[in-house]
Write a structure and sequence with these properties.
five-stranded mixed beta barrel, nucleotide-binding, stress response, eight-stranded mixed β-sheet, hydrolase, 809 residues
Length: 809
C-alpha cells in the first residue's frame, strides 16, 4: 500500500498563467519573461499571496488572448521564487515546479485567469525493478550522448541525474533540459506513470540523436563545399598570376581588360576616367560569383553606355523648321515664333543659350505634340519624362548604387535611351509633381534645369558629373500656380491659350479627320464631313479649350461609318448638320443664349476654367430685413471677399446712386451664383457682383447682351484680370454683344482672335462709375444726383476716377 493512497485529494483555487511553447515539470527551476497584461496580473496576484501559481501551456502559441478551450488540461503548480520587473511593463520570473495538476474550471478570465485545479498524485513504486533500473541507465546514457552531440547541455546537468534513482524525477529532468516540440513535452507532463515517462523519453532521445547526427552530416558537406570554393578561388588567383607572367590571359582578365579598353576609348575627362578604372580594379579583386562583382558590372555597363561624347547633328535651317511646325500645327504663332527665335540665335552664335521653355495651357491644346514637332524641326532625339505623381527625389536623381535594385534617375536614363548628349528632353506635367518624406522632386530638378549648374549634374547612382548643358529642356503644365517659384524662375513660360471654333475647324480638317479616317481604314470617298457638321460637333458635343474631345467625337463617327459599311447598309457617308445624332447620339450641350429681356439684379460675368472660358450669371435679391448679406453658390474665400468689398463700395456711394443710405440696416442682400454644385473662386467677379447689387438696390435693369469681368477695390477701382482670350470666346458663344474689361487689360486685346474682336464691342473701364451708364438702364429710375459729364466725383480720400468708358470695335 502506498502512502499516497491515504492522502485526500482536494481542489485548489489559484491564479493561472498560460505559457506559449513552454512546460514546467515538478521539482524543476525555470525562468522566463512575461509580457502579456493577463500574465503580469496573474503573477502580481500570486506574489502578493502565497506565491503559488498554476502554469499551463496553450495549444496555439500564436493566440494573444487564449480562451479556456485553447488550453491543455494538465499543468504544474509552481512556487514563484523571484520576480524582476523589466522596462516596458514586463517581468522576468523564476519559478520552481511543485506538483502536476489538472484544470477543472476557469473561475475568471477578465483581468487574469483564476482557476480551480486538482493536484495529480504521482505513483511512487515500492522498489526499483530490473526493468526500471534498465530504463534509468538507458535514459541517462542517451542523454549523455545527446549532450555531447549538441553541446547545448552542460556536463554538470548530466552528472546531476547520475546519482538519482527516482524514475519520475529523471524523466522530468531530461524532458526539461532537452529540445523537443511543445506537444511532446505536454505528453510527458500528462503521463503520470514514471516508468511510462522513461519509455517515452528513451524513444524521443533516440530520434533526436538520429536527427542531430543527420544535421551534422549536412553541415560537414556544406563546410566542405565552401572550403572547395575558397580553394578554387585561391587556385584561380594563382592561375591568373601565372598566366600574367606568361603573357596569357584568363576569362576574368579578358573581361576587365575589355572594360578598360572601352573606358579608354571613350576619352573621358580625367576624374571620370580615373573613377571608372578604379571600379574595374575593384571588379578584378572580387571573388568569383560574389554579389559585389554583379553590382560593379552593372554600374560599369550603365556608365559605358552613356553618350558622354555623342552629339546628334542639329538642323539649324530656320525655313525648314518653320515649314515643319506649320505642317504639324495650326495657329500657335507665339510658340512657333519663339522656336524660330531660338534657332536664329543658335545659328548666329553656335552656342546653346540654356533657355528652358515651359508650355502652359489647358488640356488638349497640343503642348506635348508641339514639343515633339520641335524635336523633329531641330533634328534632335526626343526623350519624354512623365512627371505626374512623382514624389520621390530618387526618381529624378537616382539611388545610391549600394542599395539593392539601385538604378540611375529618370534624366540620366532618358539620355541613355536617346543615345545622344543633346536630346530634347520633354518633362511632361511638371505642375503635378508631389513631395513627401522621401524628398522633393521639384528641388532635385533645380540643378538639372539651371543653365549655370547643369554642366556638372551629378546623379546619385553615377556619382560622376554629367554635362546637361547641351540638352534642350521643354516642360509642360496646365497651370503655373502649382509649380514651385524657384523652379518656375528657371523657365520661360509660353502660354498656349484655347482655340477658337474656327481654329478647331481648321485643325479638324487638316489633321484630325485625315488621321482618324486612316486609323479606321476609311478613304476620302467613304467618309466625308461638312464644315457645318464639324462646327455643330464643336458647339454641341464638346466643351473644351483644346481638340482632344473633338478628335474623340470624330473617331466615334468614323467607327459608326465603318460599322455601317461592313454591315452592307451603305457604301459611303457624307455627314451633314442634322445627321449627327445618328452617329454621335443626343447633343450633349445646349446652345447658350442670352435672356429674353433686361432684368434687375441679373448680370452675366465671365470666368476662366482649366477647360476654357465660361459665362457665369450672378443673381441678387434685396429683401426687407436687418442688413444681412447672404452668399450662396459654393463660393471660395476670394469671391466672398469680393462680395463684401462690393457692398462696402456701394455704401460709400449710396447717395450718388440714389440708394437709401441705411440699406445695410433695413435690407437683406442675397447674392447667388447658379450651379451650386460647381466650386467657384477667383477675384475677377468683383465688378459683376457690384453691378448686380447696384441694379437690385436701384431697380435699374441690366443690359441682357452685356458681360463683364474685373476685380474691384473698396474705392471702386477695377484691376486687371487673366484669361481674357478664353473669357471673350465664351462671351461670343453666348451671344453677348458688349464686354466690359479692366482698362489695364487693354493691351491684351492685341492677342484676341480677329473673329472675336470683330464680333464684340469692348468697353475698357478703370472705375465702377465708368460702367454704370453702359451696364444699367436708368431711364426708368431717377437718380437724385448724377455725375457731371466727363468729370467723375471724388472717391474716398481724394482719388479721382478716370474719364468715361472707351468702346473698341
Amino acid at each position: 500500500m502506498s502512502d499516497n493512497d491515504n492522502e485526500i485529494v482536494t481542489t485548489e483555487n489559484l491564479p493561472m498563467l498560460a505559457l506559449r511553447g513552454l512546460s514546467v515539470f515538478p521539482n524543476m527551476l525555470l525562468n522566463f519573461d512575461v509580457e502579456r497584461a493577463m500574465s503580469v496580473a496573474a503573477l502580481n496576484v500570486a506574489a502578493e499571496g502565497e506565491r503559488r501559481i498554476f502554469l499551463l501551456a496553450q495549444k496555439d502559441i500564436s493566440k494573444e488572448s487564449p480562451a479556456e478551450a485553447d488550453l491543455y488540461k494538465v499543468g504544474t503548480i509552481c512556487y514563484v521564487k523571484q520576480l524582476l520587473r523589466i522596462p516596458g511593463g514586463g517581468i522576468k520570473v523564476l519559478v520552481e515546479g511543485h506538483q502536476r495538476a489538472a484544470l477543472k474550471k476557469v473561475l475568471s478570465d477578465r483581468k487574469f485567469f483564476f482557476a480551480e485545479v486538482e493536484p495529480i498524485l504521482e505513483e511512487v513504486p515500492e522498489k526499483i525493478t530490473p526493468r526500471t533500473e534498465a530504463l534509468i541507465r538507458k535514459s541517462v546514457s542517451l542523454f549523455d550522448s545527446y549532450s555531447s552531440l549538441t553541446g547545448n547541455v552542460t556536463k554538470e546537468a548530466v552528472i546531476a541525474i547520475y546519482s538519482s534513482t527516482e524514475p519520475g524525477y529523471i524523466a522530468d529532468y531530461i524532458a526539461q533540459n532537452m529540445y523537443m516540440k511543445p506537444e511532446k513535452k505536454q505528453l510527458i507532463l500528462e503521463t503520470v506513470s514514471p516508468t511510462k515517462r522513461l519509455e517515452l523519453i528513451c524513444d524521443m532521445l533516440l530520434r533526436e540523436i538520429e536527427v542531430v547526427e543527420i544535421e551534422q552530416q549536412i553541415d560537414e558537406r556544406l563546410r566542405g563545399r565552401l572550403e572547395r570554393q575558397q580553394r578554387d578561388h585561391v587556385l584561380r588567383e594563382q592561375l591568373r598570376v601565372i598566366q600574367s607572367e606568361l603573357g596569357e590571359s584568363s576569362d576574368v582578365g579578358s573581361e576587365t581588360d575589355d572594360y578598360r579598353s572601352k573606358i579608354l576609348a571613350l576619352k573621358l575627362d580625367g576624374e571620370i576616367e580615373k573613377k571608372l578604372l578604379r571600379e574595374v580594379d575593384r571588379l578584378e579583386r572580387q571573388q568569383f560569383g560574389s554579389s559585389e562583382s554583379a553590382v560593379i558590372r552593372n554600374y560599369l555597363d550603365i556608365c559605358i553606355e552613356l553618350p558622354w561624347k555623342t552629339l546628334s547633328k542639329e538642323r539649324l535651317d530656320v525655313k525648314a523648321a518653320r515649314r515643319i511646325l506649320d505642317e504639324d500645327h495650326f495657329g500657335l504663332m507665339k510658340v512657333k515664333d519663339r522656336i524660330i527665335d531660338f534657332l536664329s540665335v543658335k545659328q548666329l552664335t553656335h552656342q546653346h543659350n540654356g533657355t528652358i521653355l515651359c508650355l502652359v495651357g489647358p488640356p488638349g491644346v497640343g503642348k506635348t505634340s508641339v514639343a515633339i514637332s520641335i524635336a523633329k524641326a531641330l533634328n534632335r532625339k526626343l526623350a519624354r519624362l512623365a512627371l505626374g505623381g512623382i514624389h520621390d527625389e530618387a526618381e529624378i536623381r537616382g539611388h545610391r548604387k549600394t542599395y539593392v535594385g539601385a538604378m540611375p534617375g529618370r534624366i540620366i536614363s532618358a539620355i541613355s535611351q536617346a543615345g545622344t548628349r543633346n536630346p530634347l528632353l520633354l518633362l511632361d506635367e511638371i505642375d503635378k509633381l508631389g513631395s513627401d518624406y522621401r524628398g522633393d522632386p521639384s528641388s532635385a530638378l533645380l540643378e538639372a534645369l539651371d543653365p549655370e549648374q547643369n554642366a556638372t549634374f551629378r546623379d546619385h547612382y553615377l556619382e560622376l558629373p554629367f554635362d546637361l548643358s547641351d540638352v534642350m529642356f521643354i516642360t509642360t503644365a496646365n497651370t503655373t500656380s502649382t509649380i514651385p517659384r524657384p523652379l518656375l524662375d528657371r523657365m520661360e513660360v509660353i502660354e498656349l491659350s484655347s482655340y477658337t471654333d474656327m481654329e478647331k475647324l481648321e485643325i479638324a480638317k487638316s489633321h484630325l479627320i485625315p488621321k482618324q479616317r486612316k486609323k479606321h481604314g476609311l478613304n476620302l470617298r467613304q467618309f466625308k464631313i461638312t464644315d457645318d457638321a464639324v462646327l455643330e460637333i464643336i458647339a454641341g458635343y464638346t466643351r473644351e479649350s483644346g481638340v482632344r474631345l473633338l478628335e474623340r467625337e470624330v473617331a466615334a463617327a468614323c467607327r459608326k461609318t465603318a460599322s455601317k459599311i461592313v454591315a452592307g447598309d451603305i457604301k459611303s457617308v457624307i455627314i451633314k448638320t442634322g445627321m449627327l445624332e445618328e452617329f454621335l447620339g443626343v447633343r450633349k450641350y445646349k446652345p447658350e443664349t442670352i435672356a429674353g429681356k433686361d432684368e434687375i439684379g441679373l448680370v452675366k460675368g465671365l470666368a476662366w476654367t482649366s477647360m476654357g472660358g465660361e459665362t457665369l450669371d450672378v443673381e441678387v435679391n434685396v429683401l426687407d430685413g436687418s442688413g444681412k448679406l447672404e452668399l450662396t453658390g459654393n463660393l471660395g474665400d476670394v469671391m466672398k471677399e469680393s462680395a463684401h468689398a462690393a457692398v462696402s463700395y456701394i455704401r460709400s456711394r449710396a447717395v450718388k446712386l440714389g440708394i437709401d443710405p441705411d440699406f445695410y440696416k433695413n435690407r437683406d442682400i442675397h447674392i447667388h451664383f447658379p450651379e451650386g454644385a460647381v466650386p467657384k473662386d477667383g477675384p475677377s467677379a468683383g465688378i459683376t457682383i457690384a453691378i448686380a447689387v447696384i441694379s437690385a438696390l436701384t431697380g435699374a435693369p441690366v443690359r441682357r447682351d452685356l458681360a463683364m469681368t474685373g476685380e474691384i477695390t473698396l474705392r471702386g477701382r477695377i484691376l486687371a484680370i487673366g484669361g481674357l482670350k478664353e473669357k471673350t470666346m465664351a462671351a461670343l458663344r453666348t451671344g453677348v454683344k458688349t464686354v466690359i474689361i479692366p482698362a489695364e487689360n487693354e493691351p491684351d486685346l492685341e492677342d484676341i482672335d480677329q473673329t472675336v474682336r470683330r464680333a464684340l464691342n469692348f468697353v475698357t473701364a478703370a472705375h465702377v462709375d465708368n460702367v454704370l451708364d453702359v451696364a444699367l438702364d436708368f431711364t426708368s429710375v431717377k437718380l437724385p444726383v448724377k455725375p457731371d459729364d466727363g468729370v467723375l466725383p471724388i472717391i474716398g480720400d481724394g482719388d479721382r476716377a478716370d474719364a468715361g468708358p472707351s468702346i473698341r470695335q
